[in-house]
Amino acid sequence: MRFQGFRLAVICAFAWGASFPVIAQQTDGGTTATPAASAEIIKFIRVEGTQRVEEETVRAYMVVSEGMVDDVDMVDRSVKTLFGSGLFSDVTIRRSEGGLIVSVVENPIVNRVSFEGNSAINDDTMKNEAELRPRQVYTRARVQDDVERFIEIYRQSGYFASRIEPKVIQLPQNRVDVIFEINEGPVTGIRSINFVGNKAFDDDRLREEIITSETRWWRFFSSTDSYDPDRLNFDRQRLRRFYLSKGYADFRVISSSAELTRNGEEFFVTFNIEEGELFTFGESRINSTVETIDNEALEAAIDHAEGERYDLRKIEDTEDALTKLLGENGFAFADIRARTRRDRENNLIRVEYVIEEGPRVYVERININGNDRTHDEVLRREIRISEGDAFNRVLLERSRRNLRALGYFSSVDIEESPGSEPDKTIIDVNVVEQSTGELTFGVGYSSAESLTTEFSVAERNLLGRGQKLNLRVGVSSEVQRYSLNFTEPFFLDRRVSAGFSLFNTENDYDNEANLETRSTGVGGRVAFPLSEDGRLSIFLNLSEDELDNTSSSSLVNPSYKDFKQEIGYYYSIDKRDDAIDPTAGWNFGVGQDLAGPAGDITYLRTTTVANYYYEIAEGWVFHGRGTAGLIYDYDGGVINYSDRFFKGGSSFRGFDRSGIGPRQISTGYALGANRYVVGTAEVSVPLGIPKDVGMKANLFVDFGALGDTDSVSAVANDIEDEFAFRATTGLSISWRSPFGPVRFDFASALVKEDYDDTRSFRFSVGTRF
Length: 769
Fold this sequence. Notes:
By secondary structure, the protein is of the alpha+beta class. 16% of the residues lie in helices and 43% in strands. The termini are far apart.
């Protein structure tokens, strides 16, 4: 038994020693090296299996080389580095006659990457996000990374049930095609949004304040009714600002959660909130170290009074007003901080505005984000502050207004962040682009049971360069207008706009005066600023005006064909808080144009317009508008029919096109007038529906007078020409629909003349691109 045990030990020892020549074996992670029998010098290294990869490339990845001691760890590291290169799917290192033989199997090369089953996200978007690209080395890790990236893209787009399977097709010459087969699944909508803990405001009111919305049929073009975690976090902030503006200073969102339904198609979203107590403003005071401005002037800028409901926005508005006041008086670097103290016993918040002359800060860099289409220089030329300038909040606010006034962006936010040094700041201009092209189609119904149509195409931001192009063709059944207008807003890189226009307009006045007018010509214009808010335009038009009067009984001018040379100006000043959706401020414009003396027509025409806006309460904005015009022939002649003023339709709701003003009694023809005054008073009315529906309503009253016409007939008693007061009232509803703007006007005449033509309903619809 002892001899047998010894023999068994010898056999085991021999078997253990015989295993030493093989130094590589397969493991779960690939091929790795195992201990060699003894430390030897590597005499040679031979590489086998390469096709595209150079032998020297393989040697470069290895950490052992000829002449080195054969070290087990070094060989093992060589195997790992070769695998880590991503070039090979298999690596084997074995010893042979004092050298190392490296056998590799190369990974294939990607021939093509394609996608199947995707409709919500196009191929270009997927390819831009993919790490795997044609002519790159194929690896499973890259494919898996791309799958995870694509799934995240689909989730950001609201497709939480999407599934992606990669399919690899082997091709000759060690190439592969990679196809990502996509099952998008349905958009993961939001079945309901609920709030827990709200007492002051019901769920419907709170839903109006957040961006996320419940899935409804009318939101088929909207993305806000799909689940987005980032949007949900933003909604938490919107809820907080809403409650802080309503007096609930201690409001907080305890949690927000989204629970997916079993079928994976919808979410239940729940906000758990704590409203806290309702607070009012207590005493407010100014604590200023700026000696040159007295406290009374500063206190006049405070936008809240003792006893008013607490509103965070009023504190922010006060800080903005103080900043502007100090900036206008030369203190652009003043530091303004609002300190609040709570009196919980009486539910009061006292505010102290601490004003100190802060250190001078300079703009280190201005970053522009979100302008995928609009060129950077288009935005930078509207920014009133440059890199290297002293920081100025007043100029920054003007820059924001200028960018909003362009009409290219749905939102403009300007943020500040610390620079590389304490006296430097970085400005981030964040914009969200919107459609600037507009295709408009309008339909109207008149009291004479006539149907009118309108059509035009315009682009306000041509090729992202800020240029304006407007093409109008075949406007309506009564007007044929062919016009082309082009404007370069920064001519020769200066704050001077220049443009030209080509036009051919034919008006059929069969219903109004049984005649036709035509005007064909060309125009040029330049405009430049006279102040930060004021602008002057100068223009020159050359045209041929023609009138065909086929009625022997008409009191309008007889047929004519005249050459007209027209030169004029228009000055405007804009003090509105926002050019797109104003709630405060005013604007004013006045212009004159002189016809002749080189042409066949002579006159001087003056027009003016003014608007005023005032926010009565949240959602209730008053708008007052006034317009006036006067034209006369300084050479003692008669004003041509096509140069007179006509009002009605959109310019005086409740009346038909050319529905008011001088009229021939026997024929009912509209004659046009030489002067007019028209005003509007309207108030926007909240409809109580979610804001994202995009619907607004205005109650309006239009009023004014139109009169004084030139008659070539001696039968003056056949003309009704009274500069009489008219008034209409009605409701205007506008809807920012998914396919374009829609507008309904319902109006009724309160005061009119018997010979006026009324229009009770007007409808227009358009689309944007």
